[in-house]
Records
---
Amino acid sequence: KARDQNTIDFEITAFRHAVERAKVARASGTPLVLFTPVTYRTLIAKEARTKFLDAVREAPEWIDEHVGIMVFCGPNSPSFDAIQRCATDFGAHFRYMDWQVSSTDMNASRFMNSGLHTVTFDIHAIINDRLTEIENFGAHIPELRKLKIRAAITGVKTRDELLSALKTGVSFVSGPFVTTALREPLHPRQISPADLPLSDQTLEEREVMPVSEEMSVHRLEAVPQPLKGLHNSTEVNIDTSCAVVLDNFCLFHGGVTMDD
């Protein structure tokens, strides 16, 4: 019970930090969308869900354009009831919603009418056959596209994993191979994949020219892990960062998205 209370308290704290960051970005005209963590239990447990949504209702109405949710610790093939909770209770407040899965043993059709923006395959804990698992996740992407859901992979550690993820057609790729934690958000810019991973030091050493100021979508994660995605095989489009909120501090990470 105490652990559940600590979890919901953390989620509310993370959301409120995201709101404050979004307010600053909005006031300065900086394009920024943050994803804040929500556990599967919060999604399905009435008391926790009500407490979280009460905190959400305290935020400005425009916040749904700047803060989304990332559902983690949930089943790879969620129940119809869980999806409906996500679509109705949370979809009313968040334009962008992400569902994380930890296995390719999933049924993509379960996400029908979920209102999800992305389904993310988390490979952090996978030790063996990581390339095979990435390829297996790619088999689900056509069905996800039919549901108008974008696919993402997080936890990419090597160039081979990055190239394998690109071949699957995912919209977002994340992991330490692309960027380390950054002090500040990045505006959209072009770089060569050969210059990855990015870091504050490499950014200071290189002259990287901005290419656009379009809004991009990123995640506010519960653990320090940057979000990225790839523009194509010859250049990378680095967008406004995501932020990791942990209690009283905030880490920024560069983000990369692949054009549709």
---
Amino acid sequence: SSLWFQAGYLCKYELGDETQAGAFFGRSGDPRIATHVASRFQRDVSLARHEMPLLDQNFDSFPLGAVPKDWTLIPTHAGEYRIDQVDGSHVLRLNEIGYHGAKLCTGFPGWTNYTLTCDFKFLRRDQGASLQLAVYEIGITRYVLSLQDQSAVIINHRVNNDDTPASPRVTLPGNIESGQWWRAEVRVENLETHRTRLSATVWPRDAERPVRPQIVWIDDAGTGGTPLQRGPVAMRVTEAEVAFDNITVTPNDIAKP
């Protein structure tokens, strides 16, 4: 993880490329380095965030059957996830039927103020099937958009180890397990030191994006402790086989074309 910091340092002071330096600084894996970067190299990271997404994967360049190295599965069982072909495209396929569920994680501790977007399709399901999209994933703490049947809810795993809802449960425009492609968008924003806002939008991929998010929820000091402010992303699947495609993590302040 310290190698990313060293690469950023060389880019900044040897090559004079502050944008690429910021991209490398932002990938520092050690939380202590991430804190140092946030205080000393904020301008470089800001430059990079205006130029490039943190993550942009559609898996078309991956060979079928491969296991993407940028993704970590917790826990891991043989053959649980791989690159496969669905509807003519290469996708990341995760099969958790018969297991107790697992999460795919990617990213770096320094990621902050971003929007996670992904396409997903339920290929098979069993009783109790669900999908959770996590942001600010640090160890056992995270914020989660939980999707099941035709409903969505935010779960605050910063203060709860179970799936107690933190937001009202909302009804989606259809059942996510119906076999069609869906798109989900989770935006996380640090409003100030003790407030973090999540906005979630879910819709059929072939339909128009809703004008407003279905869920907006704010974590503040009133819930106990300190709201999460940074961290990677993850997708957790339980009792289902799900295909993922077009996964992006975009800084909220990225320049628009």
---
Amino acid sequence: LEHGARITDDVLVSGPGLEIAGQLGIKALNDLKYELIEKHDLFIVGSSDPQPAKVHDFVIVEAKRRQKRVIGVLDNWENFEKRWPLDLPDEIWTTDNYAFEIGKEVFKDRSISLVENPYIKDVRKKLEKDRNPDGSVLFLGSPNKRRDSQAFQSNNDCLCEILDFLMAIYKGKRIVLRNHPSQKIIFCSEHKRDYGRERQLHISNNAFLFQDLAKTSLVIGFPSYALFVAKELDFEVLALGKFTVSGAPQFTQLDLPDGL
């Protein structure tokens, strides 16, 4: 929108994006109607992991079929070749130098631009007003891409072990868990009892990331976009693991014990 696109009230999102849009006061649609394609001349779409094809993939196909322009936004660093499985946007925007450099190598026949990241700009502005660190450690959860119950339980057990480890090495500090919006965690009974007794672990119910960042100086998590945001905002960041994609942002690592 800061590049001259006409502002409209039509925003199409799905998944966790619907709740986030509501929190921002945006009236969002979650169902693609073809009259939307007829109504507009320019479309700005996101991207996602490949398969199955997502709503924005069909927007690209239908818009280009009508000779309408599509701009795609890349806000990650992995699987660029498969981000739009049905057709490519006419132009690609990236919001950080890492994605820009990777994109230039992958999409040689597309116009690629590096644009300011409005989300990081907004969070930085809010933190300037609300920052009040209390010595806590913020742990950023990550989504479990597999949806079956066995994978969920495995992910949950692993998270419990990691939190045990963090509480041990940061004894006396409050550990705040901010989970990924697409994943709900149900703790096993022994962890509920232990965490309740120690009063060291807190589950964040804050709607926005900046609300949790405002209270901490140290952020820990698996490599993710949220962790990247914290790094860009000059927080001390420790990652459990690293990106394997060449050119992606890397973080200082916190090594887990063997077996985790």
---
Amino acid sequence: VNRHILCFQEVHGHSAAVRASFNRWLPGWNIVPSVCIDFQGFPDPASGGIVIAVCPKLASFCEIEPLEIVPGRCLSVSLSALVGGLQRNLQILSVHNYGLSFSQVNDIGMQLDSVLQVCQAQPCQFFALILGDFNFAAMDDRTFKIGRPAGESVPSPSCTSGTRQLQWEKHLRHWCEVWQPFPTHFNKVGNSCNRLDRAFSACPKSLLLKLNISFSVVGTPEAVFARGESDHAPTALSFGKSCRCAASDPPIPSWITKHPS
């Protein structure tokens, strides 16, 4: 697997069984499962769950601290290590926004606000991401019909019922969305695709611009659905050091930055 951290959703089964299965599929990885619970507080594996898997290389030198914010729906994993004489921290929050109550979204939002405050205050030591199936599109997103030209796409619904979109957007308004343009979800009823799987960073925008960021959809959601795997296509997100441009080929042309004489 050419990834350092993997986030899975709609994982059904009890925690021990889920961990055992993932240990067979990903030997040596650190597996952190979270299973849904029912209204009585008992595990409800039929309702799904979340898994975050950390590769052996990171697990070998990082202290890994999980935090179950909403069982089976929002899971956080914090990785910390001493790097360059400073204690560095990477926090990954995986969310499946389905069937959440107002108080549950509020609990997640309070965690987001706390994480954002730390990352903004010490951006060289703390970096955080929240990603997953938010089940609502961005304000200017489009819905694409399968087999039709992209020019025939229509605006996605501005507010989707049951997703608590306005509550989410209140807590995410100071996070920076890492954007990619391609659809991630296939709707078999409407034979259409839209972008429901999204990622947000708490890193200051001025520092994000200095990173080499890649965010893409692996395959297409309609192809993944046709194989019987899921109605969502996987996404791949990576961060790296920015490549230095040659002085002869600046990213912003000199005629734009040149002050008029």
